[in-house]
Amino acid sequence: MTDTDQDLYPSRLKAEPEWLTRRDPVVHGIPGEEAPVGRALIEQFVRDGFVVLEDVFSPQEVKALAREANALRERGGLIPESRITERGMEGAEAVRSVFAPHRQSDVFERLAADERLSGLARFILGDDVYIHQSRINYKPAFRGKDFYWHSDFETWHTEDGMPRMRALSMSVMLTDNHPHSGPTMFMPGSHMNYVTCVGETPDNHYRASLKKQEYGVPDGESLAKLAAEGGIEGPAPKAGSVVIFDCNTMHGSNSNITPYERINAFFVFNAWSNRLIEPFGKTKPRPEFVAHRQVKEPIRPLKAMPPLPLGGR
Q1: How far apart are CA 104 and CA 313, in angstroms?
Q2: 162, 159, 118: which is closest to 299 by C-alpha?
Q3: What pLDDT shows up at residue 181?
Q4: d(CA 84, CA 142)
Q5: 8, 23, 123, 144 - which has most CB atoms within 10 Å?
Q6: What is the C-alpha to C-alpha distance for residues 15 and 281, in angstroms, rounded to an integer?
């Protein structure tokens, strides 16, 4: 059995949750290359499991990206099931997420390859990278529902077959985030421990979990312990900023009952050497639009993003 095949992070197998020590580096780096961002930011990422980069994208870029994000949720001909509505609601104004935008929009395909994102991901993960998952997260004014506390890696490992903690998420703010409109909250330092979950995963769990996750959710006692050790932080960056967080960082967000919509473009970069195998939870792999297996080659980072059109495919 190879390191890739071995289940180093078993979950949803026992009646009681466990804490497992992380067995993978947070930052790998690339020998001979300097970090694309300041050393202090890299150190903060290692310590906290997340970091905020301000003013990564210009107002002009954000305007074009936001326009494409708004058009995408109303566009016909999307990949079946990739448009997710808020639970109990129908209609474009209640769209929760559109998955795989980088496969459904030229604009977001180029954004995923932009060196400001993919180049930094490549350095942190110490490898060529590809997109494991992407989506536009819409948190509609008055109607945006919560995302409960979770570690992404627990789901990606158990339901998708991601072998190791060698992935990260980058969330590009397309609107100003506000402290009271449901920004993503993080538990600093939580990425250094793996909290296992209980409960056998149902068939086709993705259909329910993309609206509200009920399996792969940590227990309250573990969440309270993580919060007591590291606290809870809820950065609310302005449009054009990027929030980067490790695949195992515990995070979640509240509902949005304010008049301010929140739109973020969300990309998961996985190391090329960490590509998916069979799910460790012994379930049927989730669909391609949720977890990408059909990837022919790594991303080739774009030095400069070409001018963004207002349309797209």
Answers
A1: 7
A2: 118
A3: 84
A4: 17
A5: 144
A6: 15
Q: Report domain extents, the chain.
A: 19-274
pLDDT for res 311: 42
Cβ–Cβ < 8 Å for 144, 214: no
Split the chain (313 residues) into runs of 10 and give each run's mean pLDDT: 79 93 96 92 98 96 96 92 76 78 97 97 98 94 82 96 98 94 93 93 63 73 97 95 98 89 96 97 93 97 64 41
Closest alpha carbon to 175 in 211, 131, 140:
140
Contact 290, 80 (CB under 8 A): no
What is the CATH superfamily name and number for domain 19-274? Answer: q2cbj1_9rhob like domain (2.60.120.620)
Asked if residues 269 and 118 have their Cβ atoms less than 8 Å apart, the reply is yes
Distance of CA 233 to the CA centre of its chain: 17
* Residue 202, CA atoms < 13 Å, CB-side half-sphere: 9
- What pLDDT is recorded for position 313? 39
> Of how many residues is the chain composed?
313
Q: Please report the DSSP string for 148-169 in residue order.
A: EEE-HHHHIIIII---SS-EEE
Q: Which of 166, 168, 126, 191 is nearest to 24 (CA)?
A: 166
Angle (CA) 227-209-241 rounded to 5° is 60
Q: What is the pTM of this model?
A: 0.92
Predicted pLDDT of residue 201: 79
